[in-house]
Write a structure and sequence with these properties.
The complex is a heterodimer of chains A (about 325) and B (about 325). Chain A is an alpha/beta fold. Chain A is built from twelve helices and twelve strands. Helix content of chain A is about 35%, strand content about 20%. In chain A, the strands form two sheets. A seven-stranded mixed beta sheet of chain A has the order 2-1-3-4-6-5-10, with helices on both faces. Chain A has a five-stranded mixed beta sheet with strand order 7-9-8-11-12, with helices on both faces. In chain A, α3 packs parallel to α4, α8 packs across α12 and α9 packs across α10. Chain A starts with 11 loop residues before the first helix and ends with a helix. Chain B has about 325 residues and is of the alpha/beta class. Chain B has a single domain, classed as Rossmann fold. Chain B contains twelve helices and seven strands. Chain B has a five-stranded parallel beta sheet, with helices on both faces. In chain B, strands 4-5 form a two-stranded antiparallel sheet. In chain B, a hairpin with a 2-residue loop joins β4 and β5. The relative contact order of chain B is 0.17. The chains are: A alpha/beta (about 325), B alpha/beta (about 325). At the A-B interface, α3, α4, α5 and α7 of A face α5 and α6 of B.
C-alpha cells in the first residue's frame, strides 16, 4: 500500500515570493527595498528567504523613512532599475504620498520617461486599529499614472506581480493582510495575469456582486448562503482597480440588471461609487433598480475586534443588499 | 581639478552670462504674460549652477528644484529648448508638458526640476541607488534650496545616501530666502553643514558666488563618490536678485541688501575680474562674449515665440504604458 502525499499548496505570501523570485532570476535590475525584509522576511513573510538567496544588494533593509524609500525606488526606476518598495502596510504610504502621487505618477506624462516601480503593501481591515487597517484604494485609483492590483488568491498574486515586473508602470500592489495565510494553486513561470481583467469566481443567474480583495471571500460566503434561499448570485473579482475591467462590469449590468458593489473602504468617495456611477451612466436602461453599494462606515477603524468587525460589511449585510436589488 | 585654462575659463564665464541674460529676458517676457504659470528667476545664483555642472560629467544625473533654469542651461541644454519650455511649447525640453518648474531630459541624466520643495534630493538619491545597483561610473547631484533644507524627507534621503554610501552630492543652492522667509529665522542650529555632518558625511559651507570654489568642491565630492566613499553635502551660499516669483513686490529685505550683493558679490563680475587678470581675455573680448550671448538669447526667444503649441489631442497620451492589460 502506498501513501499518497498531497503537496501543500503555497500561501498567498509565498505566491508573492514565488513570482518575485522568478522575475529576479530573470532580471537583475529588480531589487526590493523596505523595512525588516532581510531577517524577518517582511511583516507577512512576503519576501522570506529572498535576501538569503539573492544577497543584500537585491534585498535592502531600509531605515523607517517612507518618503525616502519611495524616492529611492522612483529615482532608481527612472535610472533603469525595476525596484519593489515594500511598505508593509499601505497606511505607511501616507508618509510618502508626495513621492507617489506628485512624483512617480506624473513623470511619464511630463518627462516621457517610464517609472517601472512596484509599491507593495498590505491593505484592508484586520486587527490593528486605526493606523494599520486603512483601505486607501480610491486615493491611488484616482491618480492618473498609477495602476492598482488588489489580488484575492495566491494564483492572482503571482500572476499579477509577474505582469507588473515585466511592465514599466508604477504599480500599487495591495495584498489583503487577512489573506496572507490562505493557500491555493499558483501558476508556473509562464503564467501571467493581465491587469484590467476581472475573474468570475462564482457563477450565478440572478444578480452579481462586483468586488475585490478580501471582500471576494465574504461575497462568496454571502452567495453561498443565498443559494439556500434560492437566489443565485454571481461573484466577480476585479483583481485590479486600474486599469479596471469595464467590459466585465458592463456585461454584469446588462446580463443581470441587479448589481451589488462591495468593498471594505468607507462608502463615501470609495471606488465602489465610481463603479456604480459609471455603470449607471453606461447601462442605465439595463438596470432593474439602483446599484447598491456595500462598504465600511465613515469612521476610523477601532482596536476593539467587535467594533472593527462592525465597521465593515458582514455576510448578512451583503445578503441584504442582494435581496434589495432582487426586490426591484 | 587641473589648473584653470583659457578655454575653460571662457566657457564658464559665457555660461554664466547665458544664464543671466536668459533670466533677465525671460523675466520681462513673463511680466508680459508669455510664461504660463510664471517662473522663478535665478539671477545672482549663476556660479552655483555653472560651478557644479562644469565639474560633473555630461551624463551624470541631476534632480533639482522649482528654480532650475540655471541648472538646466548649465547642464548644456540650449536656451532655445529651455525658453520654449517656459512658453510651454511643443519644442520645449519637456514638450510643453512641464513648463518652467519641470525642465527635464531623463535619458540624458536631467531628472527634472520640481514643483514641490524638497523633492529633488530624494529623486537624485534614488538615481544614485540605481547607479550603484547597476555598477555604473556616474554620480547624481540633488539640488535643494534653503527652504528644502527644512523638509523632513530631504534628511531621510541624506541619511539613506549616507548609510548606503551612494554616489550622491547634496548641493544646497542657498539663496537665503524660502519665498519671503529668511533662512536664519527658520533654521535651527543655523549651520547647515554642521546639521548635515551629523548624518555621517563630509559637509561644507562654501562661497556660492565663486564659480571656481563651487567647481573645486563639487569635483572633489565627485571623486569621492566615484571611489565608493559615499555622498557629500555642499551648502553654497548665494543670493537671488529678484523675488521668489516674477512680479513679486516683497518687503522682506531691503534694497540696500540687494544692492550690496549685486555690487560686491556678483558671480559674473567676480569671475570676469579673474578672467581679465589671468590674461584669458581683454575687457573688449568680454564685451564681445556678452554680445554673442545676447544674440543667442534673442534667437531663443524668437524660437520659442514661433514654436507650435502641443497638440491638445495628445492630452491623455503618455500617462502610462497602456501595456499592463496585455496577456503575456
Amino acid at each position: 500500500m502506498t501513501t499518497e502525499v498531497k503537496a501543500v499548496t503555497p500561501t498567498y505570501s509565498e505566491a508573492f515570493q514565488s513570482g518575485v523570485r522568478e522575475e529576479m532570476n530573470r532580471n537583475k535590475k529588480i531589487f526590493i527595498l523596505g523595512t525588516d525584509l532581510v531577517e524577518r522576511g517582511g511583516h507577512f513573510a512576503q519576501v522570506k528567504g529572498i535576501a538569503q538567496e539573492f544577497g543584500l544588494k537585491q534585498v535592502r533593509d531600509a531605515p523607517i523613512s517612507e518618503a525616502a524609500m519611495v524616492a529611492a525606488g522612483m529615482g532608481a526606476a527612472m535610472y533603469g532599475c525595476h525596484p519593489i518598495v515594500d511598505l508593509n502596510f499601505i497606511d505607511f504610504s501616507l508618509g510618502a504620498m508626495d513621492e507617489i502621487i506628485n512624483q512617480a505618477a506624473k513623470i511619464r506624462f511630463m518627462f516621457d520617461r517610464p517609472v517601472p516601480l512596484v509599491i507593495r503593501a498590505t491593505s484592508g481591515v484586520a486587527l490593528g486599529g486605526a493606523h494599520h487597517c486603512n483601505s486607501l484604494e480610491s486615493f491611488f485609483a484616482h491618480t492618473a499614472g498609477l495602476s492598482l492590483a488588489v489580488p484575492s488568491t495566491p494564483m492572482d498574486v503571482k500572476g499579477l506581480i509577474k505582469t507588473a515586473l515585466r511592465n514599466e508602470d508604477p504599480v500599487i500592489f495591495l495584498m489583503h493582510k487577512k489573506l496572507s495565510g490562505i493557500r491555493g494553486e499558483i501558476g508556473d513561470e509562464n503564467y501571467f495575469v493581465p491587469f484590467g481583467k476581472a475573474k468570475t469566481i462564482k457563477a450565478g443567474k440572478d444578480a452579481a456582486i462586483i468586488t475585490y480583495g478580501y471582500s471576494a471571500v465574504t461575497a462568496t460566503k454571502a452567495a453561498q448562503a443565498l443559494e439556500a434561499e434560492g437566489i443565485s448570485v454571481e461573484v466577480i473579482d476585479l483583481r485590479t482597480l486600474y486599469p479596471i475591467d469595464q467590459d466585465a462590469i458592463d456585461a454584469a449590468v446588462t446580463k443581470f440588471g441587479r448589481v451589488v458593489v462591495l468593498d471594505e473602504a468607507p462608502l463615501f468617495g470609495s471606488i465602489t461609487a465610481e463603479i456604480a456611477a459609471t455603470a449607471s451612466e453606461r447601462n442605465f436602461k439595463s438596470l432593474k433598480g439602483p446599484i447598491v453599494r456595500v462598504g465600511a462606515v465613515r469612521a476610523p477603524l477601532s482596536a476593539n475586534p467587535a467594533m472593527s468587525e462592525a465597521a465593515i460589511p458582514s455576510v448578512d449585510q451583503i445578503s441584504k443588499a442582494v435581496k434589495q436589488v432582487m426586490s426591484y | 581639478m587641473s589648473k584653470l585654462d583659457k578655454s575653460t575659463a571662457l566657457a564658464l564665464l559665457r555660461q554664466m552670462m547665458v544664464i543671466r541674460d536668459f533670466e533677465e529676458t525671460a523675466d520681462k517676457l513673463c511680466l508680459r504674460g508669455k510664461v504660463p504659470g510664471g517662473m522663478h528667476n535665478s539671477s545672482g545664483q549663476e556660479a552655483v549652477a555653472v560651478g557644479t555642472l562644469s565639474a560633473i560629467a555630461k551624463d551624470d544625473v541631476i534632480a533639482t528644484t522649482h528654480r532650475s533654469h540655471h541648472h538646466t542651461l548649465a547642464k548644456g541644454y540650449s536656451a532655445k529648448s529651455v525658453m520654449a519650455e517656459l512658453f510651454a511649447k511643443s519644442t520645449g525640453i519637456s514638450h510643453g508638458r512641464g513648463g518652467s518648474m519641470h525642465l527635464a531630459e531623463v535619458t540624458e541624466g536631467h531628472f527634472g526640476g520640481n514643483g514641490i520643495v524638497g523633492a529633488g534630493v530624494g529623486i537624485a538619491m534614488g538615481a544614485a541607488l540605481g547607479i550603484q545597483h547597476i555598477g555604473d561610473k556616474k554620480i547624481a547631484v540633488g539640488f535643494v534650496g534653503d527652504g528644502g533644507m527644512n523638509t523632513g524627507r530631504t534628511w531621510e534621503s541624506i541619511n539613506m545616501a549616507s548609510i548606503w554610501k551612494l554616489p550622491l552630492i547634496i548641493l544646497v543652492d542657498n539663496n537665503q530666502y524660502a519665498v519671503e522667509t529668511f533662512v536664519g529665522r527658520v533654521t535651527g542650529g543655523g549651520d547647515l553643514a554642521k546639521r548635515a555632518s551629523g548624518f555621517g558625511l563630509p559637509a561644507y559651507n562654501i562661497d556660492g558666488q565663486d564659480v571656481l570654489e563651487v567647481r573645486k568642491y563639487v569635483s572633489e565630492a565627485r571623486e569621492r563618490a566615484l571611489a565608493g566613499e559615499g555622498p557629500t553635502f555642499i551648502n553654497a551660499l548665494t543670493y537671488r536678485y529678484y523675488g521668489h516669483n516674477v512680479g513679486e513686490k516683497g518687503q522682506y529685505r531691503t534694497q540696500e541688501e540687494i544692492a550690496q550683493w549685486r555690487t560686491t558679490q556678483d558671480p559674473i563680475d567676480k569671475f570676469t575680474e579673474v578672467v581679465i587678470s589671468s590674461g584669458f581675455a581683454t575687457q573688449a573680448e568680454v564685451e564681445e562674449l556678452r554680445a554673442s550671448v545676447r544674440k543667442e538669447i534673442e534667437e531663443a526667444v524668437a524660437f520659442a515665440e514661433s514654436s507650435p503649441e502641443p497638440e491638445i489631442a495628445s492630452i491623455t497620451q503618455g500617462v502610462d504604458s497602456g501595456k499592463l492589460g496585455v496577456q503575456l
